[in-house]
Every structure is written in structure tokens, then in C-alpha cells.
Amino acid sequence: MLVGVDGPDAAGKSTFARQLSDHLDCVVVRGSIDDWHRPREERLRRGSESAEGYYRDCFDYEALVAGLLDPFIGGAASVKTRHFDYHSNTPVSDGTTRVPAGAILLFEGVFLLRPELRDRWDLAVYLHVPESVTLARVVERDRVLFGTQDAVLRRYEARYLPGQALYRSEAHPLNAAHVVLDNSEPKSPQVLVWRTAVVMSRPSVAERLAAAHIDPETEPVAAWRQLREVEGARATVVDLYELVAGRRGIAGWQLPVAERHALARSVMPLVWPGFSTTNGSERTADTIQVVDYDPSWPKRYQQWREVIAVQLGPAALRIAHVGSTSVPGLLAKPIIDVQVSVVDLTDEDAYVPPLEAAGLQLRSRDDLHRYFRPFPGRPRDVHVHVCTAGSAWEQEHLLFRDYLRTHPEACHAYAQVKKQAATRWSDDGIAYTDAKTEVILEILANVVTRLSPGTTTE
């Protein structure tokens, strides 16, 4: 789990992070943006009093993501927490830290909600203080660094305060943070904004094996199968990757793509009973990309709905827009998901030839549904899922869609997980889907508790 504490200079981020760490009942790995500066000649290339230089050039975000954030969320045994010593203007030769099982990363610093970082945080806290408070604090804190009070004020009024203003105007951190606190009085911070965040610090795979009384020396695939028997859908393909990778001292995402795909295919019949794919339906160049909501998606659905309705006629008892593109405001892969309900799923002659005549190839079968997508070589702009009318599959997808449409906090939580999954698993569609399992199951559990007996959806 990654927690970011953002805010302007002298907002009290370090103190807040330290106090938060002391109150958390788990192992905490600390980090600071101050250890990820660029060399002096790069960060001051626009001039020592440049506000734009402060915001755009000061920190090495690519190194931060590659050295700390991605490895940590990927389950690495050790990560780099220090990259560059700006005092001596030299790289840090050994800034690695061991990551104990179940640890969270608590990272503090300025500009943490800029576009290249904002989707990384499971929980983002922004400490707001007025500029007058910033100036009062830095006069005391930075007088030794800059020499005189006038020098401190001149530097902040020229570089740091305008740099923060540029950040707020471009990145809108107060809108992006899960929690916004007024930290003018550090002993009694006031909550300004509290948004539901995705805060799911799951036990490590090793801890879950121990809880399930599974021998950690068991061959990884066999261990995963046993874990699946205990946890059901909560034991995901991503967990399988971690078990295999852990034997080599690496994170699951560091396994070669081909090996990951082979592992996933080997257990699909257990994940989806009856699973099989069709010959000639592979698409090897596709990658996962999520984008902001597009108001044209409902129209695109209607266009596909008309095509499918004409092709299937009365065989289609219900055609529905499902998936993320069916939820206004929710980011999604730019692919329309269409759910088609039929009387008899096993009667493929009633729907496979007509859908393939519309350019939609049957990609896979399992006991619960059939999955179609455009033939290789055509744009992948639609997925069609055929299921049995009245089945649990049909109802879950409709209820999940309707819940997200009417519960903004759940929609926001789901969006955060989608962004993180797309970042980590852009080359692995199965892992991308499985990485969302925990939040999907939690949302579905909320759906069930709100349903009266016999409730259905249209």
C-alpha cells in the first residue's frame, strides 16, 4: 500500500508523516521527495529563482517510480528509498531498504499529486496551509540555509510560492487528494475534505499461505491451487505470479511476459470452469490503456446494440451496456462492453454464426458465458459477453453497473484501482482484470446487502 503526504513547503508534512507512522499498527517504510532531487545543474537550469524550474525540474520522478513506487507495490523484497543527495549534489550509492511482509510505504513531499504520480497512491493526504503560514515557518527554518530573513523571503516569494501556485493551477491537488487537512495548527489539524479512498492493505501471499496452513515450500502452482480452494476468487492470478517470482527474489510483475501468460493460461480452467479458447483468435499486440470518460460511449453502444439486435433477432432476450464505459464519468478502456442474454448458452448455433457475421469472433468459452471480440486485424472497440438470461452472471454485471452509477464513492474507489492496475499490468489483460478483484468483491458485497429478496435489475 502506498500513502502519499503532499502539501506546500513548510506545511508540516514530515512531522505529520512521523506522527502517522507512530500511530499505524503495521510496519511502515518511510520515504521523502527530498531524496529524489535531480542534479543541481538540472534543477537550477532555469535559474535559482525560477518558479517553473522548481515545479518542472527539481525532482526525478521517473527514477522515483522505477526505483521505489513500482517495486514496492509489486512486492519487491527491497526498494530504493534514497536516490540523490542534494546537499553534496551526488547520487546515493546505497539507498536500499528491506520491505517486510505487510509493510506500507509512507512517502512525503511536494508535488506528489502531479499527473505522473497521482494514480500511484492508495491514499493521498494533502496538508493545506496559507502562504502567510508558510512564510512564517520558513523564516525560522531556512534562515541558516539562505543566510538572512530577507534572503529567505526573496527566494520563497520568487521561486517556491509561485511554483506551488503553478502546481495548483495545473495539477489541482486539492481535488485529487483523498483527504485534505488544514494544518495551520499542527496539534489540531482540521479536516477540509474526506473522500472514500481505496485502502486495502492485504496480507502478503506468504502470510495468507500461513493462515491457510499451506506449506510455504510447496511448489508454487500447487500452493496457489490450495490457496484458491481456501480463498476462492480472492486468490488471483496475480498471487500466482507472486508465488512463482518469490522463489527467484523478484516481484510478480518482473516475470517475463510470456511466462506470465503461460502461467495464467495453465490455471484458467480452475478460475473459469470449462474455460477454453478458439483457434486463430489471438491478438498479440494489444495493450491495456484506460482513458477518461468519453461522452460518445453511449452512442457507440447504441450503434453496436442495433447491429447485434439485427443479427440475433429474437435469440437475444436482453442486450445491455455493461462495464466501465456504461458508467457516466468513470474512466475505462475505450472498449464498449455489451452483454447479451440468451435462453440456452449451449446452443451456440443460435448466436455464434450471427455475431461472427457482424465481425465479432468467439474468443473463449466457459461454463458461465461466451466472450467475443473483433477479429484480429480489426480495431478492438467492442467486447460482447453472451450469458444465460436470469443467471447470476447476468445479474451481477447489471447490479455492479447500477451501483457504480448511483454511488460516487464506490465509483471513485474503483477508478483508483483501475488506474493502478493499468499502470502495473498494461501488457497482461488477465492480471489487469484480476488486480481489480478485491474492490469488485467488496462492491458486490455492498450491492448484496442493499438488495431486498427477489430484487432484479433491467
Present the secondary structure layout.
Blueprint: E1 2-6, H1 13-23, E2 28-32, H2 40-43, H3 51-57, H4 61-73, E3 78-80, E4 84-85, E5 90-91, E6 96-98, E7 104-108, E8 123-128, H5 131-141, H6 143-146, H7 149-171, H8 173-176, E9 179-182, E10 190-194, H9 205-211, H10 220-231, H11 237-246, H12 257-271, E11 276-277, H13 297-312, E12 318-322, E13 336-342, H14 352-357, E14 360-365, E15 369-374, E16 382-388, H15 392-406, H16 408-424, H17 429-434, H18 437-450
Offer a few descriptive terms.
458 residues, alpha/beta, Rossmann fold, DNA polymerase, domain 1, Beta Polymerase, domain 2, 3 domains, 6-stranded mixed beta sheet, 18 helices, elongated, disordered C terminus
Polypeptide structure, described:
With 458 residues, the chain is of the alpha/beta class. It folds into three domains: 2-194, P-loop containing nucleotide triphosphate hydrolases (Rossmann fold); 205-271, DNA polymerase, domain 1 (Orthogonal Bundle); 297-450, Beta Polymerase, domain 2 (2-Layer Sandwich). It contains 18 helices and 16 strands. The strands form four sheets. The chain has a six-stranded mixed sheet. Helix 3 (51-57) packs across helix 7, helix 10 (220-231) packs antiparallel against helix 11 and helix 15 crosses helix 16.
pLDDT < 50 stretches: 452-456
Order of strands in the sheet with most strands: 2-7-1-8-9-10
Question: What kind of sheet is the major sheet?
Answer: 6 strands, mixed
Tell how many strands the DSSP assignment holds: 16
Quickly give the structural class: alpha/beta
Question: How many helices?
Answer: 18
Total separate domains: 3
- What's the architecture of the largest domain in CATH terms? 3-Layer(aba) Sandwich
What's the helical proportion of residues?
40-55%
The CATH superfamily label of the largest domain reads P-loop containing nucleotide triphosphate hydrolases
Mean pLDDT: 91
CATH topology description of the largest domain: Rossmann fold
Amount of beta strand: 15-25%
CATH class type of the largest domain:
Alpha Beta
| Gyration radius, in Å | 25 Å
Shape: elongated
- Kindly report how far apart the N and C termini lie: 37 Å
